[in-house]
Amino acid sequence: MICAATVHGWKAILPTNHNERYIMINKDTNTLSKPTLISFLGKKPHSGYSQTSYQIDDKLYKTAYFGFALAEHVQPGKILLLGTSGSMWDVLIEDHATDTEQESSRLRLMELTQSNSVNETILNEFAPLIEKRLGCAVEMKIIPYARDTSEQIGILAAIANHIQPQEHVIMDVTHGFRHLPMLGLLAAHYLERVKRIEVEGIYYGALDMTQAGKTPVLNLRGLLRTMDWIQAFAAYDASGNYAPFADLLPNEGWSDTECQTLREAAFFERTTNVVKARQKLSSLNQALDRRNGTFLSLFGDELKRRLSWWKPNQRAEWEASLADAYYHQGDYLRASIFTQEACLSDSMPNDQQSEFNDQRETNRKTMQKTDGRFARLSDIRNGMAHGIKGWRQESSKVLQNEQSLRATLGDYIKNWRTLGKSSSQGIKHDNNN
After folding, report:
1. Is the pTM of this model over 0.70?
2. Contact between residue 52 and residue 210 where contact means Cβ atoms under 8 Å apart
3. Domain housing 126
């Protein structure tokens, strides 16, 4: 029995028992596609890699190199085998060659391995041998040792250059240097988020966890999902948009209705409709309290804290809180809008703050005349909204650089309760206009 899900333009056919394979269907061509397996090859230990019984799901595979066990299990369409110029390429080939098969090339490969000078030219000679053994296309590529940032980026580039947009990937990070699994995880995240390539799994054969002669195989894909949550928080901190969380919460037990409500709340907030945004968020209060999902147990409290602006009873408080949040996110236009609206809401009786009526407009005009700071805030907001200079010279100067804008707007946000209520600063007209 299988079930389907859609990812990055593919329909994923997910196995519901261990005896079925994971396949993908191209939605455009309706053809089946096997995954590409990316595997790292390490440097030969002094004692060599020993034969190990790897347990994948309910099956055992005995091999010295886990990548081949995984290949037999997932049956990839292609294997991208990555190793340094000193990796155990010779051992890999010796395990799959007969006594007389490509003997001279094998001897040359041993010499190159010993001198850390294996190149792709000689590896290409052995590709047909490995392909015959595994029953799929094999690309063997040399990668740097990842000794510095340049070499680390070089490994990411090598992977990206050999994976096409239509491919989907399984990664094996069992062998190789101890730091390569971290790069493998980074590569997987890069493929998913930049190249939009689905990474089905990141597998690690945990030799140190061997019991009763069986070595368990761990799928580290959950680390990718953790990075997705971190990225969602980073996106929120940069833009104030929490809609991306709605794509993660279904896996945490949220219903489709709840996720859609969160998207709608984000939409209304970002279009400055705080009344409807608050209605949507307040209806999710119980959902935001739930911690029954794996990632919500880690991120739930922080998510709820960042969406707590709607808690106060007065609209002016909601708008002031959002003004401060968008100010710190560098969204100065929204910060100015919410600051001005907070002042106007605060000028209304509590039971009328959510209404747009003649009195609110009358108050706005009065506040413009009463306090030059409120008038300047309006002018600054209009200048940002319309891309033109404020009609007063002082307001124009504020928009000439970010430092000046942050200082002025930050002061207005801090003192929003007093804006429009003081006559200590009159409106200064520019005689040149």
Report:
1. yes
2. yes
3. 34-219
